[in-house]
Design a protein that fits this description.
20% strand; five-stranded parallel β-sheet; Cobalt-precorrin-4 Transmethylase, domain 1; Methyltransferase, Cobalt-precorrin-4 Transmethylase, Domain 2; alpha/beta; elongated; disordered N terminus; 218 residues
Length: 218
Amino acid sequence: MAESAGKAAPFVPASGLYVTATPIGNAADISLRALNVLKHCDAIVAEDTRVTAKLLALYGISRPLLVYNDHNANAMRPKLLARLREGAKLALVSDAGTPLISDPGHKLVREAREQGSSVFPIPGASAVLAALTASGLPSDRFLFAGFLPAKAGERRTRLAELKTVPATLIFFESAQRLAQSLADMADLFGPREAAVARELTKLYEEVRSGTLPEIANL
């Protein structure tokens, strides 16, 4: 007897590298497509396998985990590229959000493409876009500037370089350095409108907005 015409065919990913976004906080913020990739790939390439294992456990997924981060990237990248040449289906994930944002994944993607391997983006959560959309700041033009330097002099130099960029600027900053970075921004940028977002999508999510001097003095 023929199968019902309405029955969906099983998902079978093609060989290649799947750049897969994972939640930035709330575990429900993962796409159905991402779950399908994670369930059916040959292995998951993770920044920290302990973090990724927790997410996989929530959804009952069990796949081999491989570590790829700043510490082992140069040694691990050739091994991953070899597996891709052999036809493997690999899912690349970061600890949270979209891979390649402030991590070494871009080198793997670039070299995979150079050798002719397929690269598939599996979009999803992004702390950069979540913060921007909740901030109320102009979103028609923005620049993600990553982490600022830890040293005060280098940080102020970087900020001075960005001062005249005609766009909303987005930074990542640690809790320990946030106050000093905001003080430097207030000093160099003046009463520019700004927002600070923390714990996005989590229980204690918070977005504070105002001028830089106002936020720096909170």
